[in-house]
What we know:
This protein is mainly alpha-helical and 186 residues long. It has seven helices and two strands. The protein has a two-stranded antiparallel ribbon with strand order 1-2.
Amino acid sequence: MDRRKALKQIGLLSGSVVLLSACDVSKENVSRVMNKLRITDAQEALMEKLIDTIIPETDIPGALSLKVADFVWVMADDCLNEDLQGSFLSGLEQFKSRFKAVIGSDFDEAGQPERVRGMSSILKDNPESEPNDDVVAFIEITKAFSILGFTKSEYFMTEVMPYTLIPGKNPQCKTIDPNQKINANA
């Protein structure tokens, strides 16, 4: 047998194995691949709507404008252990059906007040006998990471509560004017 021909065939075979393993033939396209999580387009859209419900746009930019959803995904991927990640993703998948059972309408079609009422109802109606409810865990984790991401965003740290890396003075006592921007680190 010709050695060149054999090496050529082995190269083609190994290349095709690598190529086929990289092909994803699942029904939903994965829009974001992280260290441990694979997030689909539908999951990403739901997360954005949920975060917009938690911290909506007012006279200041909301969580959606500040791209807090990206922060939540990174925190869920990096900071949650495997059990909590499984609970988080399971709750994400079950959220829409639970919301529809509680409110009677789809989360996507509901207005802001209905979304807030539905999420509050899900959190309040959690029976004590079911402490491992994935939907409740998902909402609580998302809420905690959303608030953390919003309060640590560049906009919040420069415009709402300016942060100085090295404080210059330490005033003793001072009355704070409600319209004054205060330093976030004292």
